[in-house]
Structures are given as C-alpha cells and as structure tokens.
Design brief:
Layout (H helix, E strand, L loop, with lengths): L3 E6 L15 E2 L2 E2 H9 L5 E6 L2 H10 L1 H6 L3 E4 L7 H11 L4 E6 L7 H12 L5 E5 L10 E4 H9 L8 H6 L3 E5 H4 L3 H4 L6 H14 L1
Parallel strand pairs: 1-4, 1-6, 4-5, 7-9
Antiparallel strand pairs: 2-3, 6-8, 7-8
Helix pairs in contact: 4-6
Amino acid sequence: MIDVCLAILAGGSGERFRHYKPLIQLGSKKLIEYILENLAPYFNRTLLVVKNDLQRELLINNISKAISKYDVEIVLDKIDLEGPIAGIITATEYCNDKLLALAPSDTPFIKFNIYEKLRDYVVKRHYDAAIPIWPNNYTEPLISLSVRERLAHAAHMCISGRWRVQDVYSKLHTAYVNIYSLSENPEVDFLNINNYGDLELALKIINQRN
C-alpha cells in the first residue's frame, strides 16, 4: 500500500500486566514483534506511537533488530491526553500519506489482508473510514483505515470531555464492516491480549501452528 501509512498505537501502560504490554513475551518473540512482522512490510511507512521517552527507550533496547529491519519510526504523543485518541492525533500529524491505517500493539495475529479489505471501502466506496464490527455491534476502532486529514479533524473534535475512540468515527462517514467478511477466523485474528488468560490462549494458538 504505497499510499498508506501504518501507525501502531503503543502508548498504553499495561497496568494489568505490571509490564509494558508491547514487550510482553509471547513464545519466541515480544508481542509487538508479531504485529510488525505481520503488517510493517506491506505499508509505505510504519510508525510506533508511544506516550513518553521511557516507552521509546524500552522499545529501542528490546526490539532494535525489528525496528531496523522494518524501518520503524518511534514517535511520541504530541498531546497530553489519556487514552488512544492522543495516539491517533499524533499519528495523523506524523503521517504524510493520504490514508492512515491504525493497529493496536496487543493483537499479535492481525493480518494485512484485513486492511486491504478496509481500504476498498475508503478508496472504492468513498467512505472517510472503515472499521470492523462484530454481530453484537461491538466495534474494533483501533483497527481501521481512514482518510488521514478527515480522521485528524474528527479526533481533534474529541480532545475535551469523555470521548471514546468510537466517538471519533461517529463524526465521520464510516463504514462498519462485518468482521466475518474481513476474516475467516476473527476470534483469532482479532484476539486482544488484555490479561494472562488471553496470553495463554495466544500461546496455545502459536504452539498449534508450530
């Protein structure tokens, strides 16, 4: 995708693990290394968006080979705001491409072809953004592809007050795409590592594949 910048949002604290979540060990690799391996080769540019200098140093000290291999640029939040909206705003400012793909740092099995399908909604059907939605109407707003300038405008509208990431997309002409049309096995491809139970499940999936 020569017209798409990828931004991986890695500014979360990982309080449930008492450890910086992107660097949690999952089998033979760190969590973030799976995401870089799955996505970074296919985009024009890859950003890792972090909250502070400590997170940046932790990444540099632990995954320097992956950072070099995939030509990753680590950028710091430009706005002091709790939650991923700060990372989204930062990504829109550092990205120079027309389109911006977002990915969380805790979804190790995410696949590139999901973004190809989301891109079709933006490019061919002229939506501002496209995000996955489950049959129960739960959305995956941190896995998206958007027109960068329009996403930036909507995110800036959500700086003050108790806005959620979902609210950003409600301000756009957003395509909510059935998750089963994006993946044959979304329970795996969209698995978020939010606790130790999720981590054990992810390890089982990796061991089954090996």
